[in-house]
Design brief:
9 helices; 14 strands; elongated; 294 residues
């Protein structure tokens, strides 16, 4: 394959990307041309913060083509367009052949939750010390065990007494990793719900791969009280969902919330105060796990 590298201002990125797609580019990627410098711009906002800008002041666009002729033809066409004014060609290069599947797999190693509880992709052997293993490959739904919020939830699950941990709700289940973790630690009646149909299907497939029993569906599947309610989402939806999530916790049950930054702790405590007293149960890399007994 051959790669075209272009520099363009923020207001031309979308037009140029669409043009490359129309010119048979196999893929088009955009990155901050000033990344790793003092001029680098962060675009990803957080709940409660001002919205991010639409793009970087200077963007590097990289487009892959199946042949050098197609890449050269695309450059020739682009240079004739009015919208290309202010853009620059940085180069055209050959992309070395690689085993892309193996390269992708190499980025996902087994993840330690506790010394004997691990998340392991299917192409890896479990570590010798692993007595409990969730088999999970990267997919469309959030939750592979690599994010601190997921790890903290799973560590909490690993510490629970199975006898008081039978009926569980995983609200916003993503890949189903928390629901599967609960099953591995003794939960026998598990509802995993998400607003995304793809997440529901991902959860069912992952549960089958791990040979655990659970029910997955849309949020209206969650009915009645649960001994444990898990919700690893983000602070803003967690605040909105406060009355609903608390209503699903059976008397004496546990509420476990994640997706919360350390600076958002007081916001969450205030939002849940009418129904529960939240406390920080775990911290990792600027994120916190908050729990309550109801």
């Amino acid at each position: 394959m051959f790669e075209i590298s272009l520099m363009c201002p923020q207001d031309r990125v979308e037009t140029l990307s669409d043009a490359l797609d129309a010119l048979d580019a196999l893929s088009v990627s955009v990155e901050d041309a000033d990344a790793q410098t003092d001029a680098e711009q962060a675009l990803f906002g957080e709940p409660g913060m001002p919205p991010p800008q639409d793009g970087w002041q200077r963007s590097r666009i990289q487009a892959l083509f199946a042949s050098e002729d197609l890449a050269q033809d695309a450059l020739s066409v682009l240079k004739l367009q009015d919208f290309f004014a202010g853009c620059d060609v940085l180069g055209l290069s050959v992309v070395p052949e690689q085993d892309w599947v193996r390269l992708t797999q190499s980025q996902f190693a087994p993840v330690e939750i506790t010394s004997d509880f691990w998340i392991v992709p299917t192409w890896h052997e479990p570590p010798a010390q692993a007595t409990k293993v969730i088999r999970l490959d990267p997919g469309l739904a959030f939750g592979t065990g690599t994010h601190p919020t997921t790890r903290m939830c799973l560590r909490w699950i690993a510490r629970q007494d199975a006898s008081s941990f039978t009926r569980v709700l995983d609200y916003g289940c993503g890949s189903g990793i928390l629901a599967i973790g609960a099953a591995k630690y003794g939960a026998t009646d598990i509802d995993a719900v998400d607003i995304d149909e793809a997440a529901v299907q991902s959860t069912l497939l992952n549960a089958e791969a791990n040979q655990v029993q659970l029910k997955a569906g849309l949020p209206d599947q969650a009915v009645g009280g649960y001994q444990t309610v898990l919700a690893n989402i983000l602070a803003t939806p967690l605040k909105v969902l406060a009355p609903l999530l608390c209503a699903h916790v059976a008397p004496g049950g546990s509420l476990v919330l994640a997706g919360i930054l350390e600076r958002q702790v007081e916001e969450l405590k205030s939002a849940y105060a009418p129904w529960a007293v939240l406390d920080v149960a775990d911290r990792e890399d600027g994120w916190v796990l908050m729990t309550a007994q109801i």
